[in-house]
Request: fold
Amino acid sequence: MHKKLAFLVVTGLILVGGVGTFSQAQETVASTTAVTSGKTPQQISLTADIAPWKQVQVVPKVSGTLEEVFVELGDKVKKGQVIARIDSKDIALQVKQAQAALISARVGYEKAKSLAKIQAECNFKNAQAAFQSAQAQLDLTKATARTDFFTGLTQATVAFKIAQANLTKIRKGARPEEIERAQAAYQQAVANFHNAQKDLQRAEDDYNRGAIPEQALDKAKLGFEIAQAQLTSAKANLELIKKGARKEDIQIAEANLEQAKATLDKLEKLKEAKSWEVKIQGVQTQWENARSAYQLARTSWEDKLWEKDLELARAQVQNAEAALALARSRFEDCTIKAPISGIISGRFVDEGSVVGPGAPLVSIVDISSVKIVLHISQEDLDKIPLIRKIAVQIENYLNKVFVPQDINISPTMDPRSRKIKVEIRIPNPDLKIKPGMFARVKLILEEEK
Reply:
């Protein structure tokens, strides 16, 4: 034990002699060795490498042509200082495009905000009105379709019998009383035609104003056509009776009879097929379509689905804002700044080079503090927390004692060397200690108690 203590004292004296040219080191060692109790601080002697406290490689975030580089090897830089610039013309255009897209999205949002609810309400009311109209049309068709059909069938039957009688009369020749009856029938047909014409005009006007359904208009058209046919027939009949039968008159009467018979036969077939039910079914289909459209519009209005359109427009604005922010960020990234304060330790590109995120432009080291990198055995691991000072000796260059600023210990052991890596940060205000130097160090531990 005495031999070990003596060795430690000698070691301490050697350390004092080694730093004699540095008054701070002399005072520090003297204060640790001049203990009245005779105890000396423990020390661990090791070799170490010097590493920068911070070291970064500056890599661009965008690709492009390097326009300017403002630093050289060894230049001092401060955090945030511009060190290079990439051509930003294309990205500036992207910013303008993103700005235009944002303006468009905001206009769309304001339009949706002011019109979405109104449009939804209009759609609902229009669909409601269309459904009500379809309901009225369906009710009218159900009520009148069969009656209207049989009315037309009766009129066609009458027209056929009249044409048949006309042909018979023409062939036989007319008597005076027949001429009078024909004259009266013609005048009545003229009056009926004028009335039907007025009824049709009135129905068309009412339909255009929306006062009557289409079914009523169709009925007026049919009445006009029948009155017109009856007038034509009555006129022809009167002329034939007055003039007497001619061969061509008989042919015309026969043609009228054939036409009347064809119309009657057609209606008889439609009667067998119940054509009025087909008409009702067609109107029923229109009613169902109107009802579906109304239900959809009502659901959209009651559930406020128009708010979804507003949310979509708002999301488009947010997307446009994000795109603009991204474009502006890329534009700003064309101006490359130092991420830390330090010294340029490497420059890897020149102006005109095409650069991108894959390769660094420069490297920067911060050596205002440096790391003493050493490897210790597991036996000394529990002594690391006791380190109070560190004596650093760089051959023919430096011999000085420092107070550690920080100590970091690796959580793992090197399986080959069976050593544990320790990094000790020490101040380097004059930047004299350079990364990469080799040093001998003594770890001065807390005094034994």
Remarks:
- The two ends are 16 Å apart (CA to CA).
- The chain has a mean pLDDT of 82.
- The chain has two domains: 37-80+343-445, 103-308.
- The first helix runs from residue 2 to 18.
